Amino acid sequence: MFTKEDVQKIQATLGAAEAIWEGDHHRLKVVQTEEKRSLVLEIYPDTELGNNRGALIVVYTGGAHLQLHNCSGFVASEELGEVTFVAETKDRISGLVVEREAACSLYSDINRDLISSDFSRFGVEVMLSGVALSLAEDLFNDKS
After folding, report:
1. HSE-up of 43 (CA within 13 Å, CB side)?
2. Which of 44, 62, 63, 127 meets the CB 3.0–4.6 Å disulfide criterion with 119?
3. Which contacts (CB < 8 Å, 24+ apart) does range 59-62 have?
4. What is the pTM for the complete model shown?
5. Which tens digit of pLDDT belongs to each residue from 67-98?
6. What percent helix, strand, coil does the chain show, rounded to 5?
7. β-bridge partners, 108
8. Dihedral of alpha carbons 27, 128, 136, 108, sign
9. Cβ 25 vs Cβ 42: under 8 Å
10. Are 47 and 53 in contact (CB under 8 A)?
11. Which residue(s) pair with 35 in the sheet?
12. How many CB atoms are closer than 10 A to CB 115?
């Protein structure tokens, strides 16, 4: 997972100036000059994660350090200017959304059924995670 072509697609979607290979991971810097925001996205394609090996996605911002372990796929949306990285278990999903505007959101341990539910039944807080991760619904359906 995370071929050179995948990283180039992520780079283009986020408008990162370059993607640097640093021996065991790709490093991309996303800058939004108007709001004076920046973040660094690191993609470790093959990392030992306890008893497993898998992809690790790391985001560094001025005020946060986020990690998504066992990343199983991603969806890059040029139209939205964002990349959604996902990790999943049988019943739960997590997602890390990185935006071209150098912003990011983490949705963790979400019930799988939520992304195909009627969002209007839920409060805004719950609805937001379902809507954000529904972009990656095809990734989950491919593995069902």
Report:
1. 27
2. 127
3. 59/96, 59/98, 59/104, 61/37, 61/102, 61/104, 62/37, 62/38
4. 0.85
5. 999 998 999 999 999 999 999 888 888 989 99
6. 25, 50, 25
7. none
8. positive
9. yes
10. yes
11. none
12. 22
* Cα 7 to Cα 5: distance, rounded to the nearest angstrom: 5
Q: CB-based contacts of 15: which residues, under 8 Å, 6+ apart?
A: 30, 81, 100
Q: Which of 35-39, 72-76, 94-98, 127-131 has the lowest mean pLDDT?
A: 127-131
H/E stretch holding 68 reads strand 65-77
Q: What is the CA radius of gyration of the chain?
A: 15
Is 25 in a helix, a strand, or coil?
coil
Give pLDDT, residue 67: 96
Going by C-beta distance under 8 Å and a sequence separation of 6 or more, which residues neighbour residue 18? 11, 28, 29
